[in-house]
Specification:
- Helices cover 50% and strands 2% of the residues.
- By secondary structure, the protein is mainly alpha-helical.
- The chain has a two-stranded antiparallel ribbon.
Length: 216
């Protein structure tokens, strides 16, 4: 449209005036009101621009595999923040370092990286193609990595409060930065009372929630 062409022209003009500085362009984008929007829908915007062509809200998106893995390690209390050193395979159970230190093989890409849309290291890529597959959800349900993170998180929460209600609240504050709703507390209490060693599985369910791995 004419308005879009004008907007593109103005952005190109500012980029030229700033000496083609990509840093200045990044600063302008990140300090804009659009960059700080949430993905929450509201009327009448939803009715007039359901596809969000004019960016009246943020587009909800899943974390890339690197920040997702780092987030799970951080929340479980397992993240090794030692800087530098040699890269090591991400598939090793003892590798608790940030994903940026993971070894990327050009011959055989790590299974977790390939599962969550890491680009082919044999060629250049201008972006990642996001996918949503059953195998990704099975990873959250069955992988040793998720089970280990859930066990560590459960151990943290068991010492965070003297009763189950307090522990559920502590888990929601740590993972989702909010207080749990009363129905969420009741559901958690009901599940935790259903069996003796329920906290690791409950923790794994919380770590697998879309609210954690999707950016709003």
């Amino acid at each position: 449209s004419r308005n879009q062409l004008i907007a593109h022209f103005l952005r190109a003009s500012r980029l030229m005036e700033q000496g083609w500085s990509i840093k200045a362009l990044h600063r302008e984008i990140m300090l804009s009101s659009v960059y700080g929007l949430s993905s929450r829908s509201r009327e009448p915007n939803q009715s007039t621009d359901a596809d969000n062509r004019y960016f009246w809200r943020a587009n909800r998106r899943r974390l890339d595999v690197e920040p997702m893995r780092d987030t799970l390690l951080q929340l479980s209390g397992d993240l090794d923040q030692t800087p530098g050193g040699e890269a090591s395979p991400l598939g090793e159970d003892k590798n608790l370092r940030r994903t940026v230190y993971g070894f990327v093989s050009r011959r055989q890409l790590d299974g977790t990286l390939s599962l969550f849309d890491f680009p082919n290291p044999m060629s250049t890529s201008d972006g990642r193609i996001p996918t949503a597959t059953p195998l990704q959800q099975l990873y959250f349900m069955n992988s040793r990595f998720m089970q280990a993170r859930a066990a560590s998180l459960a151990k943290r929460m068991l010492s965070a409060a003297p009763d189950e209600r307090g522990r559920i609240r502590a888990a929601y504050r740590a993972l989702f930065q909010r207080e749990p709703l009363e129905p969420e507390i009741r559901l958690g209490l009901q599940y935790l009372a259903s069996e003796k060693e329920a906290w690791p599985r409950y923790a794994q369910a919380l770590l697998s929630a879309n609210e954690l791995v999707f950016l709003d």
